[in-house]
Structure formats: C-alpha cells, structure tokens
Amino acid sequence: MRNRWLPAALVAAALALGLLALGWMLAAVPSEAQSGSMHNCPPAGKWSIVVWEGESGASADDALATCGAGTVAAAYSLDSDTGDWSRWFAGRPEVSNLPPLDDLDGVLALGAVAEPVVTPTPSATPTPGTGDITLVSTNSFTTSSSVRIDGEPRELTVVGELRNDSPGNRTARDIEIRFYDAANNEVGHRWTWAFDDIIRPGRTTAFEESTPSMLYFDNETNNYPEGWTRYEITLSPGDPEEWEDEPVDVAVENVQVTEGGHHVLGNIVNNSSKTIPDGSAHAYAIYYQADGTILNAECDCYFNNSPIPPGGKASFDVPFYLTDEPVNFSSYLVQAYAEGE
User: Fold this and answer.
1) Are 43 and 111 in contact (CB under 8 A)?
2) N vs C: which end of the chain shows fewer Cβ within 10 Å?
3) Which segments of the chain does DSSP mark as H helices, in order?
4) In degrees rounded to 5, what are phi and psi of residue 102?
5) Is the per-residue pLDDT at 128 higher than 70?
6) Predicted model pTM
C-alpha cells in the first residue's frame, strides 16, 4: 500500500501559519481581543488557520474549546524544525498528539459538521469450496491536486473488493490492472496487492492503486493513462508460501467516521495468543455505494509503532483524501489484519 499525500491545501496552509501568527503579533492590540481565546475559529465543514491568544502552555483541548463546544473537529500543526505533523481529534486523546500552545501559536483547524448516518455492511459468508478469490466489484475515479508528480496534476485511482470463496487460505498479491483507450490500445499498466496478505475463507478485503504515484516498479507505467476508456483486472490467486505466518485473530473497536468521511478512526485489538510485531498491523475501510458496490478503499498499513501483545490495542487512522467535500458513501466496512510472531 502506497502512502497518500496530505491535501495540497493542508501543506499550503501550514506554510502560512508563521505569517499569520506574525500578523497577529504586529497588529493585535491586547485591549481589542479577549484574553485566552482562539481567533478565526472555523465554520462548519471548513478549514481555517486559528491563532491562540492567551497563556502559554495551554492544552489543545482547552484552547480549541474556546471556539465553542463541539465547534472544532480536528486540528493539525507542522513543526518547522523537524517537518513533522502533529494532530488533534475531538474526543480522541489516544490518537491526538498536538503539543500545548503558546501565546500567538497558530494551527490548522477543521470545523465540525453533523456526521453522516452510516450502517456497517454485513459481511456475507459464501459456502466454502465454491470457487477461488472473487473480484466482487470495482470502481475508478480521477482526482486533481496542486501537488504534481512529474508535472502531472491528475491521478487515476482504481479500487476493488475481493472475497475468498475457496475452502482454504489464499493470497492475491499479483493483481494486474491494464488501461485501454477507445481504439483498444494499452495506455497504462499497474500491479497491486490485497490489503490482507493472506485471505481466509469467506473473508472480504480490498485493494487500491493510483497512477501516477510516488512509488512504483520498473515493470509499471507511472503516468496518467491519457485517453483511457476502460480497464481490465487480472487476478492470480495462490497458496501462501511456507515461510509465511498465518493471520492472527484481531478485531476493531470504537470505530468513528469523522470529518465527513475523510478519516476513519478506531482501535485494533489483538485477540490472539501471539504478539503482533511492530509495523505489521493493517487497518482498512471500504466505502460502498447505494447498490452495494465499492466506492473507495483506503488502508492505514503498518501503522503500529510498537508490538501489540495478546489482549493489547493500538489506534489507527484511515485517511480518505478525495476532495475537500464530504465523502458521499452509503455504508462501510472496517477491518484489521495482522500476523503474529
């Protein structure tokens, strides 16, 4: 799974933080502003750069609360020295790491909106032994960004839902996508793999592939397939290799769909007797359309920075960056995958 970039607007806004804070320092008069308050609080569903004017060392919870209860859904800050992002999500201290704010510090904040009504999609279990890995449904879409890859602002994404209809564990690492134009000429070629390295019988999983991307292989094209009109997906299911560890029993809990569908937060729970090594846990979300076909899929892959012991938990954040608008999905499925040592 390839890492996705933060929206270009986020990066641009982060670069403006220092300038905005400087503007407050030069222009603000103490008698003209309340002490201990956030300035420029975001409207519902919109981003804004907010500036804290008050006592240094104020916690993000306290500072953002001055915008009003339930007003801010999320906030981000960029460390100018290290280039690292820190984040804050309302009501989610376990995944928030935004440091305390000093006087005239600025952060990028998102106004809270009413969350969409979502219903988890039931996972149908086929009769074991009736087939192999089935490509249940696919979807494709083009997005544009000011962050260009080799000068190309467009990115074509293909997602697909897979189900193991065989009686045993299978793999689907060699998923081939070929793009064709109206004259049936091949204009693009990509390889990808399923979020589950080993797919258990009856299990549903997904894949996601974008072109161009920051990472790709020598046997792939890395361009926007100009003039494409259709694509073909070829699966090459196989048995797991002898050296591979079987997936362990994991579950997800406290799932929250936030920011209009742009983030899916939750915890992975290790229900097995094995320890999950650091950097080996996956959590992913599949969004469905009203007809039950896949809309989009994303993964927070290899997210655990430390081992997860039996009975242990780790927090995940699955990001969806299609547009700045809320994601218009009908239902969703959130799952986790890991192998133990």
Assistant:
1) yes
2) C
3) 8-27, 60-65
4) -95, 165
5) no
6) 0.65
Q: Which pair of tokens denotes residue 77?
A: 């800050």
- CA distance readout (Å), 43 to 7, 97, 296, 300, 328: 19, 23, 27, 28, 20
Q: Where are the domains of the chain?
A: 8-111, 144-235, 243-337
* Parallel/antiparallel/unpaired status of strands 85-89 and 106-111: unpaired
Q: Which amino acid is at 62?
A: D
Give the CA count within 13 Å in the CB-facing half-sphere of 182.
1
Q: What would the pLDDT profile of 5-64 be if each residue is shown by its tens digit? A: 334 344 444 444 444 443 444 344 333 334 689 999 988 767 889 999 999 999 999 999
φ/ψ of residue 312, rounded to 5: -80, 170
| Stretch 278-304: mean pLDDT | 93
CA–CA gap between residue 32 and residue 16 (Å, rounded): 23
Let me know if the fold of 144-235 is the same as that of 243-337: yes
Write out the two tokens for 309. Answer: 């012991």
Looking at 2.120.10, 1.25.40, 2.60.40, 1.10.287, the CATH number of the domain 243-337 comes to 2.60.40
Residue among 304, 294, 305 at smallest CA distance from 329: 294
Helices and strands, counts by H and E, the chain: 2, 18
Single-letter residue type at 277 = P
Residues in the chain: 341
Instruction: Give percent helix, percent strand, percent coil of the chain, each to the nearest 5.
Output: 10, 45, 45
CA distances from 308 to 22, 128, 259, 300, 311 (A): 43, 31, 28, 16, 8
Cα–Cα distance measured from residue 106 to residue 334, given in angstroms and rounded to the nearest whole number: 34
| Tokens (6 digits) for 149 | 């890859």
Residue 44: predicted pLDDT: 78
Q: Give me the amino acid identity at 51.
A: V
Report the chain's mean pLDDT, rounded to a whole number.
83
What pLDDT score was predicted for residue 326? 75
